[in-house]
Amino acid sequence: MRLGLIGLGRIGAFHARTLAALDAVDSLVVTDAVPAVTAAVAAEVGAEAADSPEKLIAAGVDGVLIAAATDAHPVLLRAAVAAGLPVFCEKPLAAGLADARATAASVRGARVQIGYPRRFDAAFLAVRGAVAAGELGRVHTVRSTTLDPAPPPRAYLAGSGGLFRDCTVHDLDAVRWVTGQEIVEVYATGSDRGDPMFGELGDVDAAALVLTMADGSLGLVSNSRYNGRGYDVRLEVHGAADSAAAGLDDGLPVRPLGPGALTVAGPAHTFFMDRLASAFRAELAAFTEVVAGTRESPCTVDDALAVAVAAEAATISLREHRPVRTDEV
């Protein structure tokens, strides 16, 4: 099949390399707002270069992937859907919740997959399977962690929407997806003890959230932009009968201490691109199946919207120092 990729920044260029290596992809068309970037990535992966998103959409592609800046997602998503094309769009749907709701309403029913790669991580899939099979008994607590080794650039943070909308959404999606339960209440707190830019941008560099799920189970989320040992993505699910975890592999960026402690071979994961490399490949392979019509979207606009609502609840909770129900948002 012939696919088009819009946006060739850090994640877009990574996706271009992944797509070029997939057997299902016969040809790739790429474009970026910076022509030199378009030319460089096209040359690297053997893709065709398009001058604009409009020309890419009209280039006879079978599907479109959107990895452009967040504020461009709604326009590009609508344009690709209007052209009758299946679309993969990186999270989030839009920079703000009102825009996300409007965007979801305008493309609902189309073949759209939103990018949440933990849904394709082998360990996360195994934990979800154990929960669904009832192996853990009644689930009472889920712990989800995303710790970055260092903050992204200020320019990125300024357009990210804040920690909850940029980073925490991955934990919110993982908790919701693994348990099969909706998030009904969020209590969030955070701090900005690192670079002054976080306070200047009205953001935090570390956060903790308590989630209440529809069945009364609890979710505990921890995030930080400063985890010097490496990139830490983990999930634990604790039930009345058993417990299971994802992310306790040899790249675990934690130093176990004490007699009989877990041995971690290392080296520690340093970035999301090495920790989730196989998940990204599986995610994009899944999109080729969506394009081919052999698979329904594994992460719909409504899934993304539910997470956006929970992230907005977290933002309000941090500001107002209180629990916030998602039906308030």
From TrEMBL:
Keyword terms, alphabetized: Oxidoreductase
GO molecular-function terms, A-Z: nucleotide binding; oxidoreductase activity
Record-annotated Gfo/Idh/MocA-like oxidoreductase N-terminal domain positions: 2-112
Stored Pfam families: GFO_IDH_MocA, GFO_IDH_MocA_C3
InterPro entries: Gfo/Idh/MocA-like_OxRdtase_N, GFO_IDH_MocA-like_dom, NAD(P)-bd_dom_sf
Signal peptide start-end: none
Family according to the record: Belongs to the Gfo/Idh/MocA family.
Alphabetized PANTHER family for the sequence: BINDING ROSSMANN FOLD OXIDOREDUCTASE, PUTATIVE (AFU_ORTHOLOGUE AFUA_2G10240)-RELATED, NAD(P)-BINDING ROSSMANN-FOLD SUPERFAMILY PROTEIN-RELATED
Protein name, per record: Oxidoreductase
Organism per entry: Pseudonocardia hydrocarbonoxydans
